[in-house]
């Protein structure tokens, strides 16, 4: 009988402790949920217009010959001239990066044999060049086309920002101001008082790359300098902010 009383007392204490623990866990859960479900949640957007200061120029050469060695020799000779043209026009060696090098057979259909036959080989060597002096972009394009002649292949030119950090900071400031204005309007419309931020999260930053197609040439370009205009680009950033209601 005495053992039974001790057992009952032990079970009662265990249940009490369990209830306290559940209550505490429940309380924490309620607080967490309340934090997520109370307050004013807004998304703020910030936009900044920026003038690109860096051009990415995709260019190279393509050589064709009856054998691989002949095509590769032609490609090497012409590409050396193209590289020299880039460097002579102020493009640093660190700003020239090989993008693609390939050797492919050139085939045609043999009706008599009813199969493809190899009639030559094509060697392509493309590089990505960074042009930091945008005023010289047109002249550099023309110099490359002249150096490469009929072998020249120019794919496109794109514009971006070399160091976008200052634009990020300005866009972030604008986004937070936008979020505050929205939250204040919502508080006024609902008759509540806006408190301090309880949650802040930054979303994705979007910097578009402006790409303009140029040309593939099989002949020297005309004497006038190719006109290049970088224009403007819009940098956008968003933040999500939760404000307390006091």
Describe this structure in words.
By secondary structure, the chain is of the alpha+beta class. It has a domain at 53-161 and 210-221: Alpha-Beta Plaits (2-Layer Sandwich), CATH 3.30.70. The chain is built from 4 helices and 8 strands. The strands form 2 sheets. A 5-stranded antiparallel β-sheet has the order 3-4-2-5-7. The protein has a 3-stranded antiparallel β-sheet with strand order 1-8-6. Helix 2 packs antiparallel against helix 3. The chain is elongated, with a radius of gyration of 33 Å. Residues 6-35 and 214-223 have low confidence and may be disordered.
At the first level of CATH, the class of the domain at 53-161 and 210-221 is: Alpha Beta
Output the number of helix runs: 4
Order of helix and strand elements from N to C terminus? HEEHEEHEHEEE
Assembly type? single chain
Short synopsis of the structure:
The protein has 246 residues and is of the alpha+beta class. It has four helices and eight strands. It has a domain of 121 residues: Alpha-Beta Plaits (2-Layer Sandwich), CATH 3.30.70.
């Amino acid at each position: 009988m005495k053992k039974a009383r001790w057992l009952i007392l032990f079970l009662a204490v265990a249940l009490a402790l369990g209830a306290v623990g559940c209550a505490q866990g429940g309380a924490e859960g309620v607080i967490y949920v309340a934090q997520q479900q109370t307050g004013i949640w807004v998304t703020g957007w910030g936009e900044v217009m920026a003038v690109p200061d860096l051009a990415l120029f995709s260019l190279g050469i393509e050589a064709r010959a009856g054998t691989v060695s002949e095509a590769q020799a032609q490609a090497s000779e012409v590409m050396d001239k193209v590289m020299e043209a880039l460097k002579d026009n102020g493009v640093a060696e660190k700003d020239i990066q090989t993008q693609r090098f390939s050797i492919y057979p050139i085939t045609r259909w043999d009706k008599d044999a009813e199969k493809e036959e190899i009639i030559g080989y094509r060697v392509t060597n493309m590089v990505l060049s960074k042009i930091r002096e945008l005023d010289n972009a047109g002249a550099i394009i023309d110099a490359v086309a002249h150096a490469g002649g009929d072998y020249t292949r120019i794919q496109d030119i794109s514009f971006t920002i070399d160091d976008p950090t200052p634009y990020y900071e300005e866009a972030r400031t604008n986004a937070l101001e936008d979020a505050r204005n929205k939250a204040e309007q919502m508080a006024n419309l609902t008759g509540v008082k806006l408190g301090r931020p309880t949650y802040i999260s930054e979303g994705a930053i979007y910097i578009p790359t402006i790409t303009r197609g140029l040309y593939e040439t099989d002949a020297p370009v005309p004497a006038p300098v190719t006109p290049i205009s970088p224009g403007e680009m819009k940098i956008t950033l968003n933040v999500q902010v939760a404000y307390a209601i006091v």
